[in-house]
Structure formats: C-alpha cells, structure tokens
Here is the input.
Amino acid sequence: MASLAATRYSQALFELGVDEKKLDIFKSNLVDIDRVIVENKDLAKVLKHPKVDKDERKRLLDEIFKGIDPLVMNFLKLLVDRNRFQSIHDIKRYFTRLYNEYNGIEVAYIYSATKLSNEDLDAIVKMLETKRQKKIEYETRIDASLIAGIRIKVADEVLDNTIENQLNRMKDKVAKKVL
Here is the structure.
C-alpha cells in the first residue's frame, strides 16, 4: 500500500498529466525511472539518501534521465527538495493504477509452469478482453510448482486451470459421490 504522501504526489502528477495531455509520456517516464533505480541499487541509495547534497542529487537526475519530459524532471527534483524521493517506487505504482483506471485497463497476472508462446498469450488476452470488456495488459510469471496449466489473476478474480486445481475438483466430485 502506498503511503499517503506517495498517493498525493501520484495524484498531483496524474492530474498534471491529464491537464497537459501527457499521461502516456508521464507513465512511460515513471516506468523507465523506476526500472533504472531498481536495477541500480547504488544509484538508488545516493538519490534517496538525505545526507547527500540536494543539488548533487538533482545534478545526477539531470545526467541520468536526460530524455524525460521536463515536467517529470521538475517533479523528481521536487521529490528531492522535499525528501520524498524514497517514495518513487510507490508513486510509480499508484500513478500506474490511476492511469489504468482512467484508460479502462486491467492487469492480468498469468502464472504458468513453463514459458507460454506469444500465440497462447495473445489468445488468453483476447479471451480476457472479451470477457471483461476492458483492455488487458499482462505480466507473466513462471511457477514450476504448477506442473501444468495456467492460473490467471485479474482484479479480484482467479481463473485456475492448473493440474492441481483439476485434480482437486475431481477429488471433490468423487468424495461427494461416495458420501
């Protein structure tokens, strides 16, 4: 759960993105920024450390994130000025949630025992979009414990077509018939 501060900063940036008609750019910038920070632990420490001079942290931001929108850069510098840069991951996450709601997008988490083909993923996404009447973005995760089949989580719904689930359903049917 995002902190109250992260929620407010996300909301402010989101509203600015709507006003400036730059939501897609802002989202893309935040995703890229978050990825760079997650992949570079030392950079993250420097940018988040309150004892590192704020001007030095802003100079680093200018150097590393040259291609981002100037409004997003100003936002990052505001976070540094207010000692809130440590919330950047939560800000990106909450901003993405707002962006998805605004654009009618749901995220599906697709778990499988092995990597799925692009054709399989396309078919799953098409089925979900038809069923949910929304645009679907997805994240795939390999879970060897599933043995076979897939498990899909979208919002508060779980579609489970794994071998484990199928065996449990058969076991329940047999138990009902025996009783």
Q: What stands out?
A: The chain has a mean pLDDT of 89. Residues 4-20 form the longest helix (17 residues).
